[in-house]
Amino acid sequence: MSFHVVIGFGPAGAATARILVEQGHTVRVVTRSGRSPEPGIEHVALDATDSGRLTDLARGATALHSCAAPPYHQWAGQWPPLASSLCAAAEATGAVLVMLGNLYGYGPVDGPLTEELPLAATGPKGRVRAAVWEQARSLHEQGRIRAVEVRASDFFGPGVTDGGHLAGRVVPPLLRGKPVTTLGDPNAPHSWTYLPDVARTLAEVAGEERAWGRAWHVPTQPALSVAEMVDRLAAQAGTGPIAVRRLPSAVVGVASLVSPLLRELKEVRYQFDRPFIVDSSAYEKAFTAAATPVDEQVKATVDWWRERLATGG
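Now predict its structure.
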């Protein structure tokens, strides 16, 4: 099979590296701190903004999977050098640059999100994510690199912990039969992208030349509100109906004074205050990866959290 380099080993990077190994590929993972080796995966400690060393580590790779992200409140300063380093390594090695993106670049829109929408965000995080892709796409169009971006909505599923809106703040209390709190309107339809589907899509586009040069939405099931997802998770867990409470704006404002994450979330609160719906039909028509059925997503997520909590994880 082939050799792949994965930048980052958060939930998406780890899932991508492991699915590539399952498919028979050789995988090298690059993170700032490194990790102990695991079957089929070599871990290397490197600051990925070091383009020279990153290029050396990526020589011979079929694809360079960008799954890392700077700390949320440092995107404006840290994304540009990271993106430039990734592009430089892709150009020097010929590896396909497979970028994991999100939906911030569109900004607030009316109606479902499709890949044809302009990247019209005005907030700093939305603009920086748009600029990262625009840089790679420009280089692709110049023939200097081969690049593709895969865009996902909020991650959900096994492996998603503190950063997920249906993860650490929701599932552990739900398993204890306790109420959960959420940002925004708990009854607004919202698209949730299942983490294993993200990994499968990243792995698939790396080998599909017809996917390159544009962005695609990860196959995602029809939107369900936070309240609906909590109902499904609680039913799977057998904990009965769970109350879902909206976190009051005043509480969010006070907490934002001490929480960089909550301060930064103000820019994208619109995603939870109104319907936020992803249309992934373009990818589903063109390629083989499909969204996992919701019941399977929910069961796997509850099982994973139960095991994690039982083992003190």
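The chain has a mean pLDDT of 93.
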